Amino acid sequence: MGIIEKIKEIEAEMARTQKNKATEYHLGQLKAKIAKLRTQLLEPPKGSSGGGDGFEVTKFGHGRVSLIGFPSVGKSTLLTLLTGTHSEAASYEFTTLTCIPGIIHYNDTKIQLLDLPGIIEGASEGKGRGRQVIAVAKSSDIVLMVLDASKSEGHRQILTKELEAVGLRLNKRPPQIYFKKKKTGGISFNSTMPLTHVDEKLCYQILHEYKIHNAEILFREDATVDDFIDVIEGNRKYMKCVYVYNKIDVVGIDDVDRLSRQPNSVVISCNLKLNLDRLLARMWDEMGLVRVYTKPQGQQPDFGDPVVLSAETDEGGRGRFKSHSDAPARISDRQKKAPLKQ
Ligand SMILES: Nc1nc2c(ncn2[C@@H]2O[C@H](COP(=O)(O)OP(=O)(O)OP(=O)(O)O)[C@@H](O)[C@H]2O)c(=O)[nH]1
Ligand SMILES: [K+]
Ligand SMILES: [Mg+2]
User: Fold this and answer.
1) pLDDT by residue (tens digit) across 127-186?
2) Where does the OBG-type G domain lie (predicted)?
3) Final residue belonging to a domain, choices 187, 216, 233
């Protein structure tokens, strides 16, 4: 049985199992089993060099933003509008088949925007080019999830689930759980507050599932079993995501109003060039970039060429800054065919 079939089987078992105190431990174990299988799914197949099918684009500029969405929601139209790089747009699905980079010049910085093929439900399990697309999303600093304002609102949840299945966590911060594997000494389990979602026994069972018998664990918040599994897996990526509802020109004002009130959302129309400045401002804010203008002694500061830093938060939620070198635009040979204008 393949990994995907195994995942499906466990998901079916979870769906059949009633949620109550008695089944809580079993369900936790099943969740850990799925998490382990999903991690296996992410490993490159044995014997391959790990990727390499035309989706990798060299990083450029002070940050990278990916456009993720169902087919024909207007990702390419948006890339063309924001960057001036032409990316083919058409009314049929899967117009874009590769990764097309463009550059946004904003606030004296250069942001690399990546147009990508549309993804569909099942992408994380390899439907379409879903896995490759999501891998590129994972390599970016933030995601713009482009949604069609006139289509089902369920699309937002479906795509979020697909991204979560490969270890992306959108608009969440890392769980406040200290976890350290040890060589000996058994499991030490502590918390700084009463826990309402997990208990010691459940955590032991999950550790058992991972064959971890020596570790130090400290819950610093009332975290869930999913949070705990995320911490054990250790390969999660916490990213900001802005939900971009495009095509508001074809829906009524009530819908526009409602969508604009969804969390982390911006409503736009590429056709009418509506609200694009708001989108850029929001994207910029979420990237957390900071510009530092250096002033050589005895001279005026250079206001055209800042040093750009990005704020990062570590496990303890403390902020620090990472500097960005504005790397030259080197695109791998494979990507030279793709249009890239500055
Ligand atoms: N009404 C309306 N149509 C739009 C808007 N933006 C894009 N479109 C149309 O939507 C269709 C799909 O646009 P694309 O840019 O190709 O969409 P995509 O998401 O890149 O599609 P794939 O590459 O196939 O995944 C085209 O016919 C566009 O003209 C908009 O704001 N309003
Ligand atoms: K299209
Ligand atoms: Mg496209």
Assistant:
1) 888 888 998 999 999 999 999 999 999 999 999 999 999 899 999 999 999 999 999 999
2) 63-288
3) 233
- Give the CATH number, domain containing residue 263: 3.40.50.300
Q: d(Cα 140, Cα 320) in Å, to the nearest integer?
A: 19
Asked whether residue 315 is assigned to any structural domain, the reply reads yes
- Residue bearing the CA closest to ligand 1, atom 8: 74
User: Under a CB-based contact definition with an 8 Å cutoff, are residues 59 and 112 in contact?
Assistant: yes
Q: Does residue 48 sit within a domain?
A: no
Same domain, 217 and 286: no
Q: pLDDT exceeding 70 applies to what percent of the chain?
A: 87
Give the number of domains in the chain: 2
Q: Which of 68, 72, 92, 93 to mutate to test the pocket of ligand 1 (most atoms within 8 A of CB)?
A: 72
Name every residue whose Cβ is closer than 8 Å to that of residue 310 and which is 6 or more positions away in sequence. 62, 63, 141, 287, 288, 289, 290, 321, 322, 324
pLDDT at residue number 303: 79
Element of type H or E holding 320: strand 319-324
What pTM, to 2 d.p., does this model score? 0.85
> Does residue 156 share a domain with residue 301?
yes
Q: Are residues 242 and 298 in the same domain?
A: yes
From the CA of 83, how far away is ligand 2's center (Å)? 18
Q: Is the confidence at residue 305, as pLDDT, over 90?
A: no
Best mutation site among 66, 70, 77 for ligand 1 pocket (most ligand atoms within 8 Å of CB) = 77
Cβ < 6 A, ligand 1 pocket: 69, 71-77, 89-91, 93-96, 117-118, 246-247, 249-250, 269-271
Ligand 1 centre distance from Cα of residue 159 (Å):
18
Q: How far apart are CA 66 and CA 140, in angstroms?
A: 6
Q: Is 96 contained in some domain?
A: yes
CA neighbor of 309 nearest in space, from 114, 105, 141: 141
Q: Which domain holds residue 266?
A: 63-172+236-337
- Over the chain, what is the mean pLDDT? 88
